[in-house]
Write a structure and sequence with these properties.
alpha+beta, 7-stranded antiparallel β-sheet, disordered N terminus, NADase_transloc
Length: 247
Amino acid sequence: MRQRLTQPRSRPQSGRRGHGHDSRLPIGRSFNRLGKYLAISTAGAIATIVIGTFLLQPLGVEGRTQDAANRIWWIAKHPSLEVRPTCKDTGYYHRRSPDNADAIDYYHQSRDDEYIYTNTYDGKRQTAWVEYGWGTHGKNGDTISWDFAHKENIKLLCVTNGLAKNIQAYRDTGTIKTVQIRGCGATPRMQDLKEFTDTSSDAWENPQEIDMSCTTDKLIFDISAIYPAQDRNNVDEVGISEVTFWG
């Protein structure tokens, strides 16, 4: 019987076919590892901030830690260094609430307090301070002021101009044209506000922004010029629905 001859098989070398013992990695795989490393590092940094915020709360430093976290998130969303928080997106700013307000006069109608000056910081656009007799109170008479319990760092004012509870109320009441702001630095600041004659959009009910940079415990608005009411022959009533203070 003829014996079948077989070729002896050699044992395969260890390692993947085509690579052998070459330890060098392709460039693509190196970048893939680098990407994973950066993703893990970023996630770790964010986790550290979040965990640190909660762990440091008992130590009484949660405010500063939260501020840092908020700033990081804000910068991530707005890479441009020129972008600042706005009334639509106050970002890492905190609202600074007054303890009290004062004015020389306010309009009395069905209720004694219906248009009182404290309405300007109650968080409601539908309420307002309305001054009666604008221009008849003498020098610095057309004034409203806000007092804070201690000095606050104010960086942004959001002013809802006029009586903005509805379109007709807005058109029936005067709005501020020019205001002198006192209490923020040694020199008073003149600031113009807009009037919205086209009330088909919602611009009239949205706050107008005033960028600030000061530390104070009292801010004063001296109203030096107004826009008269649009639908009434009324030149001596002017309103402010809301002012919010941010810093």
